[in-house]
Amino acid sequence: MLWRSVVGKLWLTILFLVSVVLTILMVLLLQSFEQFNVSEAESQLVNHANMIASMYESYESKEDALQNISQYGAAFQSDIIIFVEGENVWSSDQLQREALDILFTDQALSQVFSGEKVVTTEGDFPFLSEGEESHSEIMIVGVPLQPTELEDSAVFLYQSLSAIEETSNETKQIIYFSAGIAIILTTIFAFFLSSRITAPLRKMRQVALEVAEGKFKTKVPILTHDEIGQLAIAFNRMGRELNNNIHALNQEKEQLSRILVSMADGVITLNKKGDVVLTNPPADRFIQSWYYEQGMVNEQDKALPEALQSLFQRVVALEKEQFIEYEMQGRSWTILMTPLYDDHDIRGAVAVFRDMTEERRHDKLRKDFIANVSHELRTPISMLQGYSEAIIDDIAGSDEEKKEIAKIIYEESLRMGRLVNELLDLARMEAGHVELKIEPTEVQPFVERIVRKFQGLAREQDVVLELETADVTTIMCDPDRIEQVLTNLLHNAIRHTEKGGNVTLIVRQFAEGLKVDVQDNGSGIPEADLPYVFERFYKADKARTRGRSGTGLGLAIAKNIIEAHQGQISVHSKVNEGTTFSFFIPTKEQNE
């Protein structure tokens, strides 16, 4: 609406003020001009009356005087009445007797006959016009006539007030017309002025709306150097500062977002009600796992685990950080929650999740490693100690018994040395200190030699050992390390295959690299044990029957050797059906 805008308000205010001022001036001017017209008419009548009195007194012949007075009176629009000695000697119009008597009876007009002063008055007097009486408002001026010589003599001039009203009406029309022109010009000027003043304000409003939409580079044009121009300069400066602040905030927000996304720990921000406000991907995975465990839909209620809710309640109640460990889906999580403050009031909390599964697993492996090493060393040490005591106590009577005891002590010492060497090799490999002597190796003679080496053991176990090759040529590898891997795999395959079984070494070469399979139809590995076969000291034999069964480090060493060649090793097995160990060594180009 027009009156709600600045243009309308300013326009109407200026128009109202000008209208009030013009109205007051018009009223004052009308009164002033009306009084001026009356005063001017009185002054003219008095002058004419004095002139007529002078003319009457200057002529000796009264007839000549009256004739000249008649001619003089015809020159202006006024009527003349002359009284001499109380008698009406001449008049330009026929008044009723009552009107003539009023000249003597009226208190103001009667003062003229006494020769005291000139009298001016206005009144309603009866006139005869064509035999009919009419009343009219007139102005009468009386001037004494020879007051020292004649009594009751005077000259009266009277004029209808309608002439004065006509003059006043013309003056009013001029004033009204001038006021109308002034109002029109004021309206145009006020509209132009208000539009010119408010045009920069409207532009600022438009720019402010654009700034609210995020267009911070929009500027207000500076057209003047007055207060509005200074306001435009301040607005542009505010826009620049706001743009800089928003840019800095966006950078900080982006930086914080990148930090949260790249964090390995999960972060969840909660408001004062305990609702989730912000999460990062690790925290999302934690919540998804909890949803899955509870059988919930992802967006259902956005609920948190009860342990986390109780932790949040403790944080809010105690206003201190709290720490818990939480097990879920086979993984171990540590949760640290800290309160967030708004001045001095708590406005929420932030929880940091850390997946400690690998750390717990490593702790368990370390403990298992110590237990396994102790267990592995205890048997040969006990045997060495026992047989040494037998020699010291001369329990062995004959030389053959002594040789037998010495042989056992020697074999156990070799076993201990082999265990220690394998532990050292494995430690070096896991530390990344394995040194490979890469050289071109002819595959066919290499695998044939290894198979020949195990033919004797296979015959002793009544196992058929076979070799299958396809398009094998040369491979870049460390032949000693690969022989160590094949030795371990073939030895395990023969040892775990029943009599009459088959062990097959399958070697195939592709453009990408060399693939080797050690396949047997022995007892197989339980499915529950398959994920752990490449761990140190792990054995499918839960009773830990040691004897000649090995140290449990061979497969771990084999895995590290293959991974040092940038390859992969895997196992597939079914109980009572057989096991297949496979490894793949990429070509030198693939390695690079």
Overall SS class: alpha+beta
Strand content: 15-25%
The largest pleated sheet is described as: 5 strands, antiparallel
Give unreliable regions as ranges. Answer: 542-548
| CA-based shape | rod-shaped
**Overall strand count:** 17
Enumerate the strands of the largest sheet in spatial order, edge to edge or round the barrel: 2-1-5-4-3
Helix content: 40-55%
Radius of gyration: 65 Å
| Amino- and carboxy-terminal Cα gap | 78 Å
- The average pLDDT is 78
Specify the number of helices.
14
Membrane topology: Multi-pass membrane protein
Subcellular location: Cell membrane
GO molecular function, one term: phosphorelay sensor kinase activity
Keywords: ATP-binding, Cell membrane, Kinase, Membrane, Nucleotide-binding, Phosphoprotein, Transferase, Transmembrane, Transmembrane helix, Two-component regulatory system
Short note summarizing the structure:
The chain has 592 residues and is an alpha+beta fold. It contains 14 helices and 17 strands.
Task: Give a verbal description of the structure.
With 592 residues, the protein is α+β, with helices and mostly antiparallel strands. The protein contains 14 helices and 17 strands. It has helices spanning 6-58, 62-73, 97-105, 110-113, 161-212, 227-262, 281-294, 306-318, 357-392, 399-430, 443-460, 479-495, 554-564, 588-591; strands spanning 79-84, 87-91, 119-129, 132-144, 154-160, 266-271, 276-279, 322-328, 331-342, 345-355, 439-442, 464-470, 474-477, 502-509, 513-520, 568-574, 578-586. It has a five-stranded antiparallel beta sheet. A five-stranded antiparallel beta sheet has the order 7-6-10-9-8, with helices on both faces. Helix 12 (479-495) packs antiparallel against helix 13 (554-564). The protein is rod-shaped, with a radius of gyration of 65 Å. It starts with 5 loop residues before the first helix and ends with a helix. Residues 542-548 have low confidence and may be disordered. Keywords: ATP-binding, Cell membrane, Kinase, Membrane, Nucleotide-binding, Phosphoprotein, Transferase, Transmembrane, Transmembrane helix, Two-component regulatory system. It is found in: Cell membrane. The chain crosses the membrane at residues 12-33, 174-195. It catalyses: ATP + protein L-histidine = ADP + protein N-phospho-L-histidine. Its EC number is 2.7.13.3.
